[in-house]
Design a protein that fits this description.
- The chain has 324 residues and is an alpha/beta fold.
- Helices cover 41% and strands 15% of the residues.
- It has eleven helices and 14 strands.
- A six-stranded parallel beta sheet has the order 3-2-1-4-5-7, sandwiched between helices. A three-stranded parallel beta sheet has the order 6-8-12.
- The protein is globular, with a radius of gyration of 19 Å.
- The two termini are 35 Å apart.
Length: 324
């Protein structure tokens, strides 16, 4: 029996097969029941135990049909082309990142949708933004199509809230580290790749220079933050563009040393590529006090605890031959 047949509301996760989507779909299913979570992705082959649909979010008609069929009242819109892949095809990145968001915002205006989550990124900042403890309100001059699309998306979110009353909520994610899915084409993905290489080969070639500090966040904290933000009363959400969200800040050598505490023979070398210039334009750390004040954001993982858990989870998958 489908959600619509049971006459109950459901949540739609767009981009459910992606890095955030897999973890978020699992967390929402645990909280609401898998039958109330609709996993949507442009790719087929979802492992979600509840309803799964194939969706190109740029197809507004199909989006509206799914909202109606499953009586969706909340959307988590995660589909996007990330920073490094976006530079390889800027027009495609702009089209997907912008058209998809606008379709979801229009759904918030025209349909039964009550609440929308959309992630922004530290990529909205640029070479003239303060690099250390970058504040909530700062210079924003992104120099990647990904960052430009996220900055434009923030303005659209605030516009739709102010103009139409759409309850859209957002955070500016730093680099995300997860054991549930492999890297997806981001500049901060070295912090995920390094764990796979450490376990498979005992070494890693990093595409960023030593000493390149970037803000990072472990996925369990990211998911907890999303759920906390979405549960907060509307009058507590004072920022309708996107909240700064921080957690960790480290450089590749510090991460390698933390891994070496568990794998003493692990080695790292550095061969920077085009992603170095992207990283150099981003903050090294984030001031997220407004998120902490407004809706109680509080990360729980430090570097050592994150590394220990990542290695434990991936080693367990390696033992069961699931490490890819």
């Amino acid at each position: 029996m489908t959600v619509s047949q049971k006459n109950t509301s459901s949540v739609l996760v767009i981009g459910a097969s992606g890095q955030i989507g897999q973890d978020l779909t699992t967390a929402l299913s645990r909280e609401l029941g898998p039958e109330h979570v609709i996993a949507a992705d442009i790719r087929e082959g979802s492992t979600h135990s509840g309803p799964s649909v194939q969706l190109d979010v740029c197809d507004r008609k199909s989006l509206y049909q799914i909202i109606d069929q499953y009586q969706v009242d909340t959307i988590y819109h995660l589909a996007a082309i990330l920073s490094a892949k976006g530079e390889q095809d800027p027009q495609l990145a702009w089209q997907l990142n912008m058209d998809g968001l606008l379709n979801v915002l229009e759904a918030g205006r025209e349909t039964r949708i009550n609440r929308i989550f959309w992630p922004s990124s530290i990529a909205v900042f640029g070479p003239n933004s303060p690099r250390d403890k970058t504040p909530q309100h700062s210079i924003m001059d992104p120099n990647t199509v990904y960052g430009i699309s996220k900055l434009a998306g923030e303005r659209w979110c605030e516009y739709y809230h102010q103009k139409y009353g759409v309850d859209v909520r957002s955070v500016r994610f730093p680099g995300l580290i997860s054991y549930e899915s492999p890297p997806g084409g981001g500049t901060t993905d070295y912090a995920v790749e390094i764990f796979y290489s450490a376990l498979r080969e005992g070494k890693y070639t990093c595409f960023l220079q030593a000493g390149t500090y970037l803000p990072m966040l472990y996925m369990p904290d990211a998911i907890a933050g999303i759920l906390s933000l979405m549960k907060a009363p509307s009058d507590q959400i004072r920022v309708r563009s996107s909240y700064n969200m921080g957690g960790l800040s480290f450089e590749p050598g510090e991460l390698a040393q933390a891994i070496r505490q568990h794998l003493p023979d692990f080695n790292i070398q550095y061969v920077p590529d085009f992603r170095q210039s992207i990283a150099d334009s981003w903050p090294s750390s984030i001031d997220d006090q407004e998120a902490k004040t407004d809706w109680g954001w509080s990360p729980t993982y430090d570097l050592e605890r994150m590394v220990q858990d990542m290695l434990h989870q991936l080693q367990a998958r390696h033992t069961s031959q699931q490490l890819v």
